[in-house]
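Support request from a user on the community tier.

User writes: "When I paste my C-alpha cells into the form, the page sometimes reloads and wipes my input. The last time it worked, I copied everything first. Here is what I submitted, just in case something in the input itself triggers the reload:"
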C-alpha cells in the first residue's frame, strides 16, 4: 500500500512505497548466476513466488501458474501503485493542509523469458513481438480499468534500477498524468494549436530529415538519436507517420515492426557499449485521451553515467556524446 505525497515547492507528487523495502534484491551479474543460493521468483518452477498470472503464453496443456510458459504477466508483488485503497488507515497522518492521497493505479510485471540471464538482443523477433503485444494488451487493460496514463519500462542491471536480473518489463497505469507527462501533453496541445500538427511527428521529421542521426528504418518506423538527447547513445523509435490508432489499439504488424527495430537497436547498444545498464521506456501516449494530439514512442536509454548533482539540482541533463556521433557509431556497429 503506497502513499502519494504532494511537494508544494516542486508542485509534484512523490510516492512513499514502504512495502518495496521488503523487495528481494538478489541482483546478480551473468558471472554470478548459478553461484547464488537466492531463489528467483521469475524462474520456471517458482511460479508460486509471484502473484496469480493475468496473461501468459503457454504450451498446449500447461496450466496457469505452473511451468510450460514462454512469458507471463503478473501483478507486481511490491507495487508502486495499487488499484484499491486497502490499508489506507496505515498512512502516516500528513501535516496540516498537506496534500496526500492513496497511490492509485495498476502495476504489472512481464516476465519476458524462462532464461534467467537472457538479454533482449538474444530474443527472436517473433518472441519480442509477442512481448510487445503483451505490453499493448496490458496497457489497454490498464486504460479500461481507469488508469489512462500508462508507462512501460524495463530496467537492465542495477545502475538502471533493476533489483532482479531475470528479464522483465514493468507496466504502470496511473489515473492522473504525473507532472512531467502533464507538461508533455500541454506542449503537444500548444504545438497543435499553433501549427495544426503533432509535436512528436514534427520532432521526428526534423530530427531525421538529414539522416545524420538515423540508425535504422523500417517501412513505418525510424530509430534515431534525438537532436536533444539527454543520455549518451539515447535512441528513440517512433512512427514516421501519425498513427491512425492509439498504441493500445495498434495491430500485430506494428508489434512485429517495432520488435525488429528494438532488436536491432538493443543489439547495437549491447555490442558497441559492452552490455551496458540501460532502460527502455515506452511512452504509450495519450492516444486514448481526447484533445491531446500526440502519439507513442519507444526510448532505449543506456545508463553509462550516473545522474549527478547538477541534473538533480537543475533538471538539465548533460550528455557527453553528441547524438550525431552516437548515431554514426551505432550505425557502424
Ligand atoms: Zn530467474
Ligand atoms: Zn504524430
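"...and here is what came back when it finally went through:"
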Amino acid at each position: 500500500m503506497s502513499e502519494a505525497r504532494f511537494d508544494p515547492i516542486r508542485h509534484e507528487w512523490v510516492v512513499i512505497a514502504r512495502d518495496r523495502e521488503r523487495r528481494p534484491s538478489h541482483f546478480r551479474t551473468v558471472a554470478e548466476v548459478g553461484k547464488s543460493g537466492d531463489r528467483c521468483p521469475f524462474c520456471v518452477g517458482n511460479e508460486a513466488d509471484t502473484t496469480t498470472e493475468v496473461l501468459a503464453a503457454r504450451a498446449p496443456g500447461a496450466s496457469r501458474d505452473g511451468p510450460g510458459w514462454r512469458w507471463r504477466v503478473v501483478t507486481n508483488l511490491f507495487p508502486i501503485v495499487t488499484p484499491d485503497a486497502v490499508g489506507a488507515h496505515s498512512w502516516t497522518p500528513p501535516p496540516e493542509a498537506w496534500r496526500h492521497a492513496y497511490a492509485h493505479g495498476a502495476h504489472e510485471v512481464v516476465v519476458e523469458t524462462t532464461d534467467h540471464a537472457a538479454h533482449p538482443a538474444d530474443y527472436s523477433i517473433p518472441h519480442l513481438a509477442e512481448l510487445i503485444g503483451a505490453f499493448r494488451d496490458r496497457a489497454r487493460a490498464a486504460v479500461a480499468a481507469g488508469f489512462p496514463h500508462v508507462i512501460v519500462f524495463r530496467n537492465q542491471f542495477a545502475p538502471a534500477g533493476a533489483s532482479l536480473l531475470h528479464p522483465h518489463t514493468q507496466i504502470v497505469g496511473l489515473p492522473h498524468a504525473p507532472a512531467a507527462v502533464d507538461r508533455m501533453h500541454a506542449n503537444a496541445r500548444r504545438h497543435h494549436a499553433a501549427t495544426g500538427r503533432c509535436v512528436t511527428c514534427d520532432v521526428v521529421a526534423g530530427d531525421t530529415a538529414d539522416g545524420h542521426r538515423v540508425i535504422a528504418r523500417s517501412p513505418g518506423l525510424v530509430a534515431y538519436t534525438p537532436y536533444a538527447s539527454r543520455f549518451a547513445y539515447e535512441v528513440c523509435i517512433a512512427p514516421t507517420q501519425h498513427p491512425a490508432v492509439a498504441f493500445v489499439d495498434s495491430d500485430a504488424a506494428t508489434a512485429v515492426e517495432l520488435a525488429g527495430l528494438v532488436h536491432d537497436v538493443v543489439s547495437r547498444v549491447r555490442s558497441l557499449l559492452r552490455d551496458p545498464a540501460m532502460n527502455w521506456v515506452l511512452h504509450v501516449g495519450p492516444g486514448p485521451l481526447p484533445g491531446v494530439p500526440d502519439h507513442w514512442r519507444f526510448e532505449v536509454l543506456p545508463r553509462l553515467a550516473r545522474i549527478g548533482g547538477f541534473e538533480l539540482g537543475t533538471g538539465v541533463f548533460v550528455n557527453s556524446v553528441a547524438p550525431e556521433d552516437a548515431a554514426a557509431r551505432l550505425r557502424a556497429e
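Agent notes: The reload is a front-end session timeout and is unrelated to the input. DSSP finds six helices and 13 strands in the chain. The domain at 179-332 is CATH 3.30.428.10 (HIT family, subunit A). Escalated to web team.
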